[in-house]
Write a structure and sequence with these properties.
This protein is mainly alpha-helical and about 475 residues long. It is built from 21 helices and no strands. It is globular, with a radius of gyration of 23 Å. The termini are far apart.
Length: about 475
């Protein structure tokens, strides 16, 4: 065999892994193109004239999440209908999966794990897990996937800049390109504010040497300055102050923290039990310490201590643990939100548990004998196939408003909003008897649910549109 042939074979995995990842992701999400506009899509896209043209978008500026709204305006003006929205969402998810693969490959090389299956397995789990459908198939879930694209690209550019031997490229990527991409991420969604902390985590995870904290913090300094600038700009927009006031009046900060302990546990359950995915869950507000709350607090504290303590000796383990909690922090911590938890909050956080699963798979493959290695590989392939099939099936929930709200109502029978919205969808489909029963159920669950009361009255009068 010639040397050229050997070199081509050696280079093959670097091309085949992203190609396999992209093909698997597209195959799992082909069914997403049957989806229709759902839930928040109506308020932020369909009935929002400010995203129906580039001119309208420009006239609405300055405003919150400008780049997210720009993406909607470009889609709407493109004239390809909802298929265009789905195509962009899927393209973003494919790009994010490849960015996760690239970022984890660089991390693996720094941890002395180059050539292992860990990054590929983690990227496949990230791409194929059905919990991601809320950020991909659900059109307005783009806020999570588009923000992730810029955040991951920012981290990848920083990693590239830190490892390149070309001084000009190093300065370009670490001081300009990466911070600029972070600024764009903030222009999509504010939860990407944790990118500077993610940089500190990535830089600190190094098995080759003990990275000084000063070096890790210095790597994140340009991004911290960008965050400060973005915060000052946001402070000039009244809309952000209105949202902050609304958040602080939603519930007490202490109550919110207790509730979020249970919300994070619920999100972990979504990863472990994807058959219970729910687009509009009704989670209970926890107002006092209980034995389960204390147990969860101790568990989270133990995991965080383990993650921090492992940064030097077991950085691979530390990365998986700390990455997960880091990306949940903006949505599942002190600042109250209207909804305690949503599946799409796991979008970037999933890379942490996926990395740990990849570590486990690689270790099992390395320690197993050849026959058992084949069995482990077959089990892993079977798991990934099951996740891909589950994703394709989950996409069907978005095919109609009836299917969407029927799924929520079945999984959250105490959800008045689900009952009311399912009733409205059935009324529009010409099924008034079922619609009336659901409106009445919604009012029984929540007597103050005025929308259900109005819809019931209009239905009885025959004037419900």
């Amino acid at each position: 065999m010639s040397r050229a042939t050997t070199d081509r074979r050696a280079a093959l995995p670097s091309w085949t892994a992203p190609a396999l990842l992209a093909l698997a992701t597209v195959a799992a999400y082909l069914t997403s193109f049957d989806g229709v506009f759902q839930f928040d899509d109506w308020a932020v896209i369909v009935d929002e004239p400010r995203v129906h043209s580039l001119a309208a978008w420009w006239q609405s500026m300055p405003g919150i999440r400008p780049l997210l709204k720009l993406s909607y305006a470009l889609n709407w003006q493109g004239g390809h209908g909802i298929a265009g929205f789905h195509a962009v969402n899927l393209g973003l998810h494919v790009a994010n999966a490849c960015l996760v693969l690239g970022l984890l490959r660089r991390l693996a090389a720094r941890l002395g794990m180059a050539g292992t299956l860990t990054p590929l397995v983690a990227a496949l789990l990230f791409a194929l897990h059905p919990v991601q459908t809320e950020a991909v198939t659900y059109i307005s879930g783009r806020s999570s996937s588009l923000a992730a694209t810029f955040a991951l690209a920012s981290l990848w550019c920083l990693e590239y800049g830190r490892t390149t031997t070309h001084p000009a490229l190093r300065r370009l990527h670490t001081l300009f390109v990466s911070p600029l991409l972070f600024l764009l991420a903030l222009g999509v969604k504010e939860t990407t504010m944790v990118v500077p902390a993610a940089i500190v985590l990535l830089v600190s995870c190094d098995a080759r040497r003990r990275v000084p904290w000063r070096e890790a913090l210095a790597a994140a300094t340009p991004h911290a300055l960008v965050l400060l600038l973005a915060a000052l700009l946001a402070a000039t927009l009244p809309r952000y102050w209105m949202l902050l006031e609304s958040s602080l009046t939603a519930r007490d900060l202490g109550v919110n923290l207790l509730s979020q302990m249970h919300a994070v546990a619920w999100l972990v359950g979504q990863l472990m039990m994807p058959w219970r995915l729910n687009a509009d869950p009704t989670l209970a507000v926890v107002e006092a310490w209980t034995p389960p709350t204390v147990a969860l607090a101790l568990l989270y504290a133990t995991l965080l201590i383990l993650g921090c303590a492992s940064l030097r000796r077991r950085p691979a383990l530390a990365f998986g643990i700390l990455w997960f909690f880091l990306w949940l922090a903006p949505t599942n911590s002190l600042l109250p939100r209207l909804d305690l938890a949503n599946d799409r909050q796991l979008y970037l956080a999933l890379a942490g548990p996926a990395w740990l699963a990849g570590l486990l798979a690689a270790r099992a493959m390395a320690l197993a004998s050849r026959p058992r290695r084949i069995a482990v590989g077959a089990a892993l392939a079977g798991l990934l196939l099951c996740l891909a099939v589950s994703t394709a099936q989950r996409n069907a929930v978005y095919d109609s408003e009836i299917a969407f709200w029927a799924d929520v109502a079945a999984k959250s029978p105490a959800n008045a909003r689900a009952a009311g919205n399912l009733g409205y969808a059935l009324a529009r489909a010409g099924r008034p008897v079922e619609a009336e029963a659901l409106f009445r159920r919604a009012l029984a669950l929540d007597p103050q649910y005025t929308r259900a009361a109005i819809n019931l009255m209009l239905l009885q009068d025959g004037t419900l549109e």
